[in-house]
């Protein structure tokens, strides 16, 4: 659903950003970025503005996806996770829709508490040791405390890629009647707005509905999450 809108890149991951929620107003503050990205970088600035729409407050950790489109129609993907107890948000940026890989990395960072200041050097190790061999992404890290191994099959650029987690969320959330209504609306190029208190649910339903259009594609802008004061822009 995105292969005709991808930017050229030789990297699996562009950067990893960690935000700390301001204790006074709840705004996300950039605390760490690797590889280094200037605070005024358009990608990071956009991420900072949209990573927590409407100052969303949740009591459980959520993994969700952001998609940004540039002036040329090319896309950039972010998989993020909110960590309400520690007040962190972690995001992984990529120009490629390798959602299984992004999910695996964000899960590793969360489970091993790599978002904490004393553990962040491990993020640099991960990105340096992450390699692509043919259509497989591999990660092998040995340390005194543990051994981390990942092997992720990457989708073929010539076929449609459907991420099963998104489809499962879509299936469990919406009725068949809504499936048909959404599909019909997308075919006729009408705007569709998903509303939920769960960020994960919104972005999963959006990506699943777009993937089910195959072999057709959605030619317009995609807003995976929007603050409420921006809803009028999609009218």
Would you kindly provide a written description of the structure presented here, covering whatever features stand out?
It comes from Schistosoma japonicum. InterPro entries: cDENN_dom (IPR001194), DENN_C (IPR043153), DENND1A/B/C (IPR040032), Tripartite_DENN (IPR037516). This protein has 235 residues and is α+β, with helices and mostly antiparallel strands. The chain has one domain (3-229): Beta-Lactamase (2-Layer Sandwich). It has helices at residues 42-50, 99-111, 121-129, 164-173, 176-187, 199-211, and strands spanning 15-21, 28-34, 62-69, 75-83, 88-94, 130-133, 136-142, 147-153. Strand 6 and strand 7 (136-142) form a beta hairpin. Helix 4 packs across helix 6.
Briefly say what this structure is.
Pfam families: DENN. The chain has 235 residues and is an alpha+beta fold.
Give me the CATH architecture, please.
2-Layer Sandwich
How would you state the average pLDDT, rounded? 85
Total count of domains: 1
Spatial order of strands in the largest sheet = 2-1-5-4-3
Largest sheet: 5 strands, antiparallel
Q: N-to-C terminal Cα separation, in Å?
A: 23 Å
What descriptors fit this protein?
single chain, 235 residues, alpha+beta, Beta-Lactamase, five-stranded antiparallel sheet, three-stranded antiparallel sheet, 6 helices, globular
Secondary-structure blueprint:
Elements: E1 15-21, E2 28-34, H1 42-50, E3 62-69, E4 75-83, E5 88-94, H2 99-111, H3 121-129, E6 130-133, E7 136-142, E8 147-153, H4 164-173, H5 176-187, H6 199-211
Antiparallel strand pairs: 1-2, 1-5, 3-4, 4-5, 6-7, 7-8
Helix pairs in contact: 4-6
């Amino acid at each position: 659903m995105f292969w005709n809108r991808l930017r050229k890149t030789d990297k699996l991951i562009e950067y990893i950003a960690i935000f700390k929620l301001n204790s006074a107003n709840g705004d996300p503050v950039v605390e760490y970025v690797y590889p280094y990205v200037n605070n005024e970088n358009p990608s990071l600035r956009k991420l900072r503005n949209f990573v927590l729409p409407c100052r969303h407050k949740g009591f459980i950790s959520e993994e969700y996806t952001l998609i940004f489109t540039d002036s040329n129609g090319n896309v950039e993907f972010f998989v993020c996770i909110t960590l309400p107890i520690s007040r962190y948000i972690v995001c992984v940026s990529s120009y490629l829709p390798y959602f299984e890989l992004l999910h695996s990395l964000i899960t590793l960072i969360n489970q091993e508490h790599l978002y904490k200041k004393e553990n962040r050097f491990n993020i640099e190790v991960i990105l340096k040791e992450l390699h692509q061999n043919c259509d497989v992404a591999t990660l092998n890290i040995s340390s005194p405390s543990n051994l981390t191994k990942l092997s992720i099959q990457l989708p073929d650029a010539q076929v449609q890629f459907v991420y099963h987690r998104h489809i499962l969320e879509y299936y469990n959330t919406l009725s068949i009647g809504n499936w048909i209504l959404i599909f019909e609306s997308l075919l006729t190029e009408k705007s569709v707005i998903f509303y939920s208190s769960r960020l994960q649910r919104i972005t999963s339903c959006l990506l699943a509905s777009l993937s089910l259009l195959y072999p057709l594609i959605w030619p317009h802008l995609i807003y995976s999450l929007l603050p409420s004061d921006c809803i009028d822009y999609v009218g």
